[in-house]
Amino acid sequence: MKYDVVVIGASAGGLTATISAKKFYPNRSVLIIRKENVNMVPCGIPYIFGTLKSVDDDILPVEKFLEPLGVDILMDEVTEIDPRAKLVRTASGKEIAWEKLVLATGSKPAKPDFPGSELEGVYTTPKDYEYLKVLHRKVAESEKIVIVGGGFIALEVGDEIRKLGKDVTLIVRSRLLRSSFDPEFSKMVEERLREVGINVVYGQVERLVGDGKVERVKLVDGTEVSTDLVILSTGYRPNAELAVKAGLKVTRYGIWTDEYMRTSHPDIFAVGDCVEHRDFFTGKPYGLMLASTATFEARIAGANLFKLQIVRENRRTIGVYSTNVAGLTLAAAGLTEKAAKKEGFEVIVGYGKGPDKHPAKFPDTSMVAIKLIFSRDRGAILGAQIAGGKSVGEMINILALAIQKRLTASELYTLQIATHPLLTASPVSYQVVKAAEDALAKLRMGN
């Protein structure tokens, strides 16, 4: 069996790379190999417990996207890549030749190795349909649930389980969402979680305690939290084993790629969670597990498989995040104020706040608070953080573009906008413009 393009992995990155490959090279034969019989929508996984009601409501319809394009789909597990012979070998004994190969092998939960993590009743949140069905059932059978972690997945899972009337405790080592938000936004989300009845406990887990089944979580300071079930949400690690075995360049953060998502082998590409990313401002390598980033990279890879026809202007990655916890939407892009100062930037910070409709008496109006971080030397935007209602989800995308294009406070202050009473904030107090104005005033005054 031989194909022009073989894609390994059928989650967001693999699916998008496959679609892009067919769109740009319609006459090329394309095969996607999926290990799972059912693929999940990655970002929808936390919502299977409450909003979506079941695991089956979060299925990614791979066939629906690919069959009309003439893509072949193989249910199998790739066990080996042979770069020299340009072959992949599978668990069922198949050998498949390729001209171009795309690795979209994703990530897996990072499970801490503290004592007791092997007890019954201790789970993670992998993108695994059968595993999640079991977890969904166990959550329904439990009353007290502890979630270890303070990142996006931990908060979203906790809030969804809370909606079932369960007793939910978050155990957080530091502050909530610390890598994406500054302390004032972490405090905002913590207050909201406590308001809706989620317990937030700060401390480091020493061990999980129980006789065969988990019963308590013991912290280093001696605090113990009783529980029926524990969900470990302490990050993810890249699935890079195939790349390592194939002799590709792999770092602690994932598979190395160039700006066109080519690996150290010129005919092998890699995208998504399995890839090492480099920070937009500093160039430092780091891990980034976002479906939005995976699809961005997959479009670059798919378009450039056989010739470079889409120029990737920015060779580094902007982390762009959004979530909704207990009715509060939080979003961030670029550097936090703390991270910018740590990297040596001199910064000016601008704030804007106001309702997202005008007048604020309209139904479903939310107060939106925005923080913009600018470099002092030329006023270029370095980062943005927003909290408020649903409108925040698209506002952050505009600010991510502003960061990518290195817009200044002056350019954002003179931003030309469309407004409507039912849809946006007032043009008099549009939050992005007001935050830019605040920063400009501080720059002019030398603060």
Write the layout of secondary structure elements.
Layout lengths: L1 E7 L3 H13 L5 E5 L4 E2 L18 E2 L1 H5 L5 E4 L2 E5 L4 E4 L4 E9 L3 E3 L12 E2 L5 H13 L2 E5 L3 H11 L4 E6 L10 H13 L3 E4 L2 E5 L6 E4 L4 E3 L2 E4 L3 E3 L2 H5 L4 E2 L2 E2 L12 E3 L6 E2 L6 E2 L4 H13 L16 E6 L2 E7 L2 H6 L4 E9 L11 E9 L5 E8 L3 H13 L4 H5 L17 H15 L2
Parallel strand pairs: 1-2, 1-8, 2-5, 8-21, 10-17, 11-12, 11-17, 12-13
Antiparallel strand pairs: 3-4, 6-7, 7-8, 9-18, 14-15, 15-16, 19-20, 22-23, 24-25, 25-28, 26-27, 27-28
Helix pairs in contact: 1-7
Please characterize this protein's 3D structure:
The chain is an alpha/beta fold and 447 residues long. The protein is built from 11 helices and 28 strands. The chain has helices spanning 12-24, 62-66, 129-141, 152-162, 183-195, 241-245, 291-303, 337-342, 392-404, 409-413, 431-445, and strands spanning 2-8, 30-34, 39-40, 59-60, 72-75, 78-82, 87-90, 95-103, 107-109, 122-123, 144-148, 167-172, 199-202, 205-209, 216-219, 224-226, 229-232, 236-238, 250-251, 254-255, 268-270, 277-278, 285-286, 320-325, 328-334, 347-355, 367-375, 381-388. Strands 1, 2, 5, 6, 7, 8 and 21 form a 7-stranded mixed beta sheet that branches. A 5-stranded parallel beta sheet has the order 10-17-11-12-13, with helices on one face. α1 runs parallel beside α7 (291-303). The longest helix has 15 residues, at 431-445. The chain is globular, with a radius of gyration of 23 Å. The model has no long low-confidence stretch (mean pLDDT 95).
